[in-house]
């Protein structure tokens, strides 16, 4: 059974004995307000030394060194990159991230995949045989651009069918805290029905991005029982998470991490 659980200062995704996957909270770091305390982004105005130490702690939670971490420059797109130990260290200290990328896949146990989040949905990926792991960043833009479909197709090309995938939809903003306007609603309706939308007025609706990703993953062939959802809304739980939508631009970022055990 795939599931999420809160363990200390992180949310752990229990997916396979040979896979480690977790999502940070805002607790357990060294950053000062308003980034207190476990901010993992160099791009929000926090001290570089604090972010570096916070990222080092994240890697250590998985028994890894910071220089094994690989991180991208995220652009709310649908590009996913295969990476290996040859990419390890890129973006880990802020320099030379993988450009224009919102997802990773790897078969290499010597690399730690990492992405940044504030409200968007983290999609953790493994297969039933623990041959491969992945991590994808799915805000509403990446979701309607089909990042989950792109990833499923890339894995199928490596001989891993969608019915063998195990998926975790991590902590993200829920529909309770996520109101969108008509242009976004129109984009969502291009790929899904109104079940993921709750009308507020004539020009606004609440959007359930995790439910939207679940639907699109199922349409791509992932078994419903192979998809777990973390029971946390980043907007409601500002004591536990950073939220761009609720707290504004001047706040920290969480991180999602996944790796194969050596």
Largest sheet, described in full? 6 strands, mixed
Compressed to H and E, one letter per element, the order equals: EEEHEEEEEEHHEEHEEHEHE
How many individual domains?
Answer: 1
**Average pLDDT metric:** 98
**What is the rounded Rg?**
17 Å
CATH topology, by name, is CNF1/YfiH-like putative cysteine hydrolases
Looking at the structure, what is the overall shape?
globular
Number of helices: 6
Just give the CATH class: Alpha Beta
How far apart lie the N and C ends? 22 Å
Helix- and strand-based class? Answer: alpha+beta
Spatial sequence of strands, sheet with the most strands: 1-2-3-15-7-4
Into which percent range does the helicity of residues fall? 10-25%
- Uncertain segments of ≥5 residues (pLDDT<50)? none
CATH superfamily: CNF1/YfiH-like putative cysteine hydrolases
Protein name: Purine nucleoside phosphorylase
Organism: Sulfobacillus harzensis
Keywords: Hydrolase, Metal-binding, Transferase, Zinc
Pfam family, one: Cu-oxidase_4
Features:
262 residues, alpha+beta, CNF1/YfiH-like putative cysteine hydrolases, 6-stranded mixed sheet, 6 helices, 27% strand, globular
Question: What does this 3D model show about the protein?
Answer:
The structure is a single chain. With 262 residues, this protein is an alpha+beta fold. It has helices spanning 48-61, 140-144, 147-157, 182-189, 209-219, 244-247, and strands spanning 3-7, 10-14, 19-24, 69-70, 80-82, 103-106, 112-117, 121-127, 133-138, 165-169, 179-181, 197-201, 204-207, 227-229, 254-260. The protein has a single domain, classed as 4-Layer Sandwich (CNF1/YfiH-like putative cysteine hydrolases). 50% of the residues are buried. It is 20% helix and 27% strand. It contains 6 helices and 15 strands.
């Amino acid at each position: 059974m795939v599931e999420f659980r809160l363990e200390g200062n992180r949310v752990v995704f229990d997916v396979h004995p040979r896979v480690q996957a977790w999502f940070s909270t805002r607790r357990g770091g060294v950053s000062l307000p308003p980034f207190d305390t476990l901010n993992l982004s160099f791009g929000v105005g926090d001290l570089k030394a604090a972010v570096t130490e916070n990222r080092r702690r994240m890697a250590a939670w998985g028994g890894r060194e910071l220089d094994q971490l690989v991180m991208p420059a995220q652009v709310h797109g649908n590009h996913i990159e295969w990476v290996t130990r040859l990419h390890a260290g890129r973006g880990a200290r802020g320099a030379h991230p993988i450009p224009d990328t919102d997802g990773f896949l790897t078969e290499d146990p010597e690399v730690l995949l990492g992405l940044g989040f504030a409200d968007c949905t983290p999609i953790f990926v493994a297969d039933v045989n623990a041959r491969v792991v992945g991590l994808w960043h799915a805000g509403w833009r990446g979701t309607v651009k089909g990042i989950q479909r792109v990833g499923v197709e890339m894995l199928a090309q490596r001989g891993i069918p969608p019915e063998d995938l195990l998926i975790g939809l991590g902590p993200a903003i829920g529909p309770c805290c996520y109101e969108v306007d008509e242009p976004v609603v129109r984009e969502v309706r291009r790929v899904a029905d109104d079940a993921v939308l709750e009308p507020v007025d004539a020009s606004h609706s609440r959007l359930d991005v995790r439910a939207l990703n679940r639907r699109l993953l199922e349409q791509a062939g992932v078994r419903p029982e192979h998809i777990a959802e973390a029971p946390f809304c980043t907007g409601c739980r500002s004591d536990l998470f950073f939220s761009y939508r609720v707290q504004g631009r001047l706040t920290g970022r969480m991180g999602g991490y996944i790796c194969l055990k050596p």
